[in-house]
Amino acid sequence: MPLIAIAVAALAVGFEQLVQSRYGPMGIIAFVALSIGIKAKNTMIGGVGAVILVMLLAQSG
Fold first, then answer.
1. Which of 11, 51, 52, 61 is the most buried (most CB within 10 A)?
2. pTM of the full predicted structure?
3. Using the 8-state DSSP alphabet, how is residue 53 labeled?
4. What gap in Å lies between CA 61 and CA 54, rounded to an integer?
């Protein structure tokens, strides 16, 4: 069980670094808002984070 938790944490940190390097501070803000929204089961905060990420992805594509 601890090995799985460490692996998931490493993946989350890696994804966060990828977002930051590619989309800058706004990408990190969006990722944090999405994460907080999911953990707190708050659809408004999660939705705002998801929308910002989608807008950043659409802009770069």
1. 52
2. 0.68
3. H
4. 10
Eight-class DSSP state of 61:
-
The answer to whether residues 53 and 27 touch, using CB atoms and an 8 Å cutoff, is yes
Give residue 41's region: left, alpha or beta (phi > 0; psi -120 to 50).
left
Closest to 34 measured CA to CA, from 54, 60, 13:
54
Distance CA 50, CA 9 (A): 20
Q: For 30-48, how does the pLDDT look when each residue is reduced to its tens digit (9 = 90+)?
A: 888 988 998 899 899 999 9
Contacts with 43 (C-beta within 8 Å, 6 or more apart), sequence order = 37
Q: For 11-31, write each residue's pLDDT tens digit.
A: 888 887 877 778 788 888 888
